[in-house]
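Intended use. Records like the one below are meant for learning the mapping from a protein sequence to its folded structure. Do not use them to infer anything beyond what is encoded.
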Amino acid sequence: MPEPLLVVEDLVVDYPARGVRRRPFRALAGVSVNIRPGETVGLVGESGSGKSTLGRAVLGLAPVSGGRITFAGRDISHLPRSARRALASEIQVVFQDPYSSLNPSLTIEQTLTEPLLVHSVQKKEAAARVRNLLDQVKLPRDALTRLPREFSGGQRQRIAIARALALRPRLVVCDEPVSALDLSTQARVLDLFKEIQEATGVAYLFISHDLTVVRHLSHRVAVMYRGEIVEHGDGGEVTARPSHPYTRRLLLASPVPDPARQEQRRTQRRALLAAGQEGAS
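Structure written out for the chain above:
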């Protein structure tokens, strides 16, 4: 079994609170997780659970107050900006909103070429790599001359994925990359993530609030609640037979197409919520 590519150990992230005497807000409280090369680890939790904060810490966008983050054996917890920019060739990100993540004034060719030129890739090689990227994300070659507004949401997310892959990273942080898409488009984009991983060996930290989404491509799943990981294990096991009450509530919150079954799930979730409140009191 290969050594982990990314190792997060006892990570603590504190955000300053407003007001002179108020204590900082602890977004992450001793979180540990690792990702191996070519593996997808799904990070699941409701809004405010800390899952996106973990992704931002890996990207150097959230302050690390304690613990450490190691990438390919190198401590990246407190890298200066210049070193973080150099690391962009190995760690990339796909954000949630395909509409706001692309510069509306740049053509797709300019969007995909820009990071390559910044990292000193020659123009001829950059042009060839951009054409290959379009093939990878299954967009036509004539997309290069068009602007983001000319594409659907699913197509824009494919462009964002292509941009993330341009520098051939070893790890991509996927922060709710399909939550803004309709269900049929979600399925196609998830299949695309899987195909790209099989072809390139890239690893994913896949962040989502939906257990049914991470089930499609996660080898392992970690469930976050109030800044801590409350359940962690095999992706199929956690998403089908969760052991923690919070994970079971997340599973029951996912919609299903059968109205009768959906009502049954709502009833079960309300019972779990009531049991949790009683336990807290």
